[in-house]
Amino acid sequence: MGKLKLAVAGAAPYAGRLAECIRKNAPEYLEVASCLQAVQLPVFLEMLSPDILLYDKGAALPKQLPQHTVKILLADSKGCGDETGPFIFRYQQGPEILRQAFQIYEKESNKNLVCWCKTADLAMTAVYAPGGHELQLPFSLAYASLCGEEKKVLYLNLAEFTGMGQLFAEEEGENFSDLVYGIRHRKAKFQLCLQSVLHHAETFDYVQPPGSPQDLYEAQEEDVAVLLTLLREQTEYELVVWNCGTWNQAVAQVMEHSSSIICLTKENMFGKYRKAEFDQFLEKGKWKKLQEKIKCISLQAGLGGLIQEADLFAQLRNGEFGEQVKLAVG
Question: Alpha helices of 117-156 — where are they, by DSSP H?
């Protein structure tokens, strides 16, 4: 999908402030522009040809607009009536106005968007380990556990054969595969789908990993996009921690929309080789933008002394390994 263009038109200074706020909170695929002078508006719209136009009552729109442009009124009251077409109550925070603008655009244009703003109330952290995956599960669980002490956290596992099922001693039951299947066929009942697969640890909620690695490879872009949107719109989680295994379409899509990516590396020779290959891969095309989100951490195992019968998370949060995780939580 190419960049979307959003224009804000109206009397200064409100339109200018709103455009700047939206620009700060916009996803990477959104280009934001503003026009504060009524006489310049026809030329501005002709040159920009926006996909979304936010305008207030003071903006004298030309009779002819680009056919694909979805225009949305910034209304002074919540009861504007249907004759105005789509509208958004203007006295809201910028990220909320942007979220509603995306929703209206999806409905009017019949296009799907992942409505993701950088300052949304739901943040995401992806954990990935190009240098070897044996510490990925304990690190990501400890990270979720520590973050869960201060905010509402959901843990999702996209790694195959991590040992998570054995660790939690869960009986056979519904897992991430069932969640994807559920939202694919019963999107309107997302809350029921989520509740059916949800488990609860001491400080966070989690979903068991997919029942088969094949389910990860077969997850469609639309499936992941819908899941990300529904998590944001229909849950109260403040943070989603993703344990990302082998690079595939689902992992790449999650990383694209994560606010931060923790990359676990190894200091040995082969760990450095794999990290160098990963860096070279990211330099290519669309993945280069992920580099600014990545925080690399070299972990020491420190797991040999774990006692299986004792509280696992208390052990992970404390001691040498826990201190390393706390540095990452920072």
Answer: 136-147
